[in-house]
């Protein structure tokens, strides 16, 4: 599994995931599960939605 989530994308996903999880708990909503998905994709640096489209934010950061 090749990384397709760049460093900036990773940070945004982790922070946004934690916020959505917290709001899910606060409002007792199932939307907190969306935050779990964002958090996991940020941690493993691989997004299943990017893969079929061969999209990657990781490659953009490695180019000079």
Brief synopsis:
This protein is mostly helical.
Describe, in plain words, how this protein is organized in 3D:
By secondary structure, this protein is mainly α. The protein has helices at 7-26, 32-44, 58-62. Helix 1 packs antiparallel against helix 2 (32-44). It is elongated.
Number of helices: 3
Order of helices and strands: HHH
Largest sheet: none
Question: How many β-strand runs?
Answer: 0
SS strand fraction: under 5%
Low-confidence stretches: none
Share of helix, binned: 55-70%
Estimated radius of gyration:
13 Å
Global structural class: mainly alpha
Shape summary: elongated
Q: How far is the first residue's CA from the last residue's CA? A: 24 Å
Task: Provide the residue-averaged pLDDT.
Answer: 91
List keywords for this structure.
64 residues; mainly alpha
Strand-helix topology:
Layout: H1 7-26, H2 32-44, H3 58-62
Helix pairs in contact: 1-2
């Amino acid at each position: 599994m090749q990384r397709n989530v760049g460093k900036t994308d990773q940070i945004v996903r982790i922070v946004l995931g934690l916020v959505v999880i917290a709001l899910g708990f606060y409002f007792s909503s199932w939307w907190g599960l969306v935050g779990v998905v964002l958090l996991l994709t940020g941690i493993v640096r691989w997004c299943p939605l990017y893969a079929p489209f061969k999209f990657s934010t990781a490659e953009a950061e490695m180019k000079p």
